[in-house]
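Holo prediction. Input below; ligand is fructose -6-phosphate.
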Amino acid sequence: MCGIVGYLGKEKALDIILASLKRLEYRGYDSWGFVVYNGKKIFLKKVVGKITEAENIAGVQNGFVGIGHTRWATHGKVSENNAHPHFDCQQKIFLVHNGIIENYDLLKEKLLNKGHKFNSETDTEVICHLLEDYKKKFKNLKQAVLETLKELRGSFALVIFDKDNPELLIGVRLASPLILGVGEKEFILASDLLPINLVGQKFIALNDEEIVFVTKKDFEIKNFTNQQKLYLFQEIRWGQEDIEKGDFPDFMIKEIFETPRAVRNTLKGRLLSDEVKLGGIELLGDKLNKISKIVLTGCGTAYYAGLVGKYVFEELTDFQIEIDVASELRYRNYKFDDKTALIAISQSGETADTLEVIKEAKKKNIITLGIVNVPGSSISRIVDAGIFTYAGPERAVASTKAYYSQITALIMLAIFLGLRRKLSRSEAKNILEELKTIPEKQEKILNLESEIIKIASDLTKSRSMLYLGRKFNYPVALEGALKMKEIAYIHAEAYPGGEMKHGPLALVEHDFPVVFINPHDSLYSKSLSNIEEIKARGAKVITITDDINCHFEENFIFVHHTLELLTPLLTTLPLHLLAYHTAKLLNRNIDRPRNLAKSVTVE
Ligand code: F6R
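Structure of the complex:
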């Protein structure tokens, strides 16, 4: 978490740093800070709270170079002193850091014994003082960086500025993301792609153990042993409107409304009448034939998309399917064998736990596939092959549109692999035809906003809720409950409908809210019995269904009918809207829920 940025270019460092921090704010938002230098004077600001311009930049002049940071505290409480940039004793070397320095306590003790004065409680500050010592020793900043890196353990992306070398900006990456954006005589370094188009569309995603030395005219990329590295330019596919809120009050609602477009983009160019084209996966050729088991993984919402994927793969293929959250799977004594393929799902492509599972799997030489939204991200570069979801940038902390794209990609992958095994072309054709209609059906659900607001207004006083669904819609229940907890702060639990009588039914009393996802699928009538069971105990049931007879129910949200395996693409949408509007009515900070940050790049 935390967002870092650095800029070197055309006398507008302050503007670029502030605009970048706003774009990176979703990564951390308890405090922020920057340094800007105009050739004469250093302007340093550290602020606790929101990134606002006017009051905090009074007296700050623009400059040609600067670095900035938005913080999500890990080491050291939220305070001005602990906000970045951090600096050395002489206040010449400034740096911003995303990640964790695991051996900082030992390093700090050593540096304190040498007489260094610390200004913060962070792990980061040791780097500034190490750089100070090595700069003094080698009289060369680049050498100082290389020596300092030898001492650091952990994960870090750094941007370093030194007043004695003002036309040099240094970026370092080890297990935390860092992107270099290349414009016309200007460069930007940032934790992710969002700020990059402030200077241009071209970017290079740095690899682990790489350092970039940026000057006003050029840049060079080296590894930690000072050898030149080759690099690959990539191009950003989205424009300004994709990363601005536009007329929407929050990014989350904007992104929910972008769902149909996200799904269309995931499908684009990949569907033939009875088969699926997946360029990246096809490159694996015969290797795909030896797979007999698939293990799915991810965290949070991406994991729930994976859970939908599990049911889909079981329906369309004959693989043995397993799934676990990455934070558990990475520590399990899981026996990957050479017939297994791992499918890792991640919007950001940077989630630390998911990344670790992939690294473990790679050590065992099994095929790793990624379903990732952000090009250039760590996961997209480490996996053997994958599918980009192309949902466009997600800025709200709570993931929404990416989830639908992830499920869409998993369905395409299941069809692609299924066709090599048990799935017939006519079955594939039937699913693909229906899949193409999904964005339109989603648009119709988005039109139901006012009905959903009415239901939301009944929920604002609830302290607790249940979400129930079965089979394909059990993951939907989990996702609905997660969003209600995450942004409305209402306790919500999800269960498979059939589990009620094994315990949770005891919770149900008069007016207890229960959301039941019950489309006309293979378990429809069983779910109806479950609904009767909870209604008889006085529950207030909100049904998500495609059954028109449900008009007789008091609280229901109608979704259009689709194939059973595609229902999550529709039934989740009312739940995202329900959580959003409940949170809105409760006046929650929707895009920045308390205690949470997007892109969980630390454990
Ligand atoms: C929930 C949410 C998180 C993310 C999770 C994984 O609304 O957004 O649970 O889904 O942190 O993130 P990615 O997909 O970036 O790996």
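The mean pLDDT is 94. That is the main takeaway for now.
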